[in-house]
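Standup notes
- DV: blocked on the single-chain target, sequence here:
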Amino acid sequence: MHAITIPEPGGPEALAWVEVPDPVAGEGEVLVDVTAGAVNRADILQRQGFYNPPPGTSPYPGLECSGRIAEVGPGVSGWAVGDEVCALLAGGGYAEKVAVPAGQLLPVPKGLSLTRAAALPEVVCTVWSNVFMVAHLRPGETLLVHGGSSGIGTMAIQLAKAVGAKVAVTAGSKEKLDRCAELGADILINYREQDFVAEVREATDGAGADVILDNMGAKYLDRNVQALAVNGRLAIIGMQGGVKGELNIGALLAKRGAISATSLRARPLAEKAAIVAAVREHVWPLLDAGHVRPVVDRELPMNEASEAHRVLEESGHVGKVLLVAP
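- DV (later): unblocked, structure below
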């Protein structure tokens, strides 16, 4: 098969489409013929040499894909050759084939193309696990989403609205904020021109955000604590704004606040399977009914992964960028 490899860490040009050995479905795994993969910020970090895949997993980038099952390994039940699926991966989505633990498979939702289903697994599992399983967003509460026009952001808006929450978002342009509004966002904040702490407080009559989904890390740590409501929960899922910040513990204590920080990639298989099962139970009915849909900015051929990485790094996109296999 062919796959995108990283012979040496570097810029987007470091990605190479080359012939590599086919993967093999081991115990508890299936082999998937990949239809499409999706690009995530973690892939950029891997390309730069900062985020290696967990030991024993595929060395190729790509944390989610869609495709058809080509082979069912030993110990797998409930799936058959030919099933159309999408999958959460530890790596290997930028390839023509990938071996996937059966617990990380999801059926393609009704009414959604097999290609577009590639936009779902990583964002839905990230949002559901952090916003709902960890931070326990409830109906009537306010969720603040940083990077509302990203793949994560566009899904977080829809899922929060589906459960009856109020949603505030930050984004860097009117165009991006308009797209967030179309998805249901209630409070629109241009982070280049407005202070999100002041805007959230004003929009909530001084209460603040009950849950904050943060992709920035250190840069926003202090202001996120300021923006929290009493009993608020800050869920950190990224570090685009740095890894070391100063935490005012007194302010956090005054809010009776909680901070969590999670990633999906290195979690044990059982934890990933539990998240995928929760997503299938709670989110897939919303997708099947058409109440929630992935937002896709564009589709590119998989051998043009370098261009897809440039698109993500320039941050002009809204939603997901997909890589379509030959």
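- Follow-up: The longest strand covers residues 29-38.
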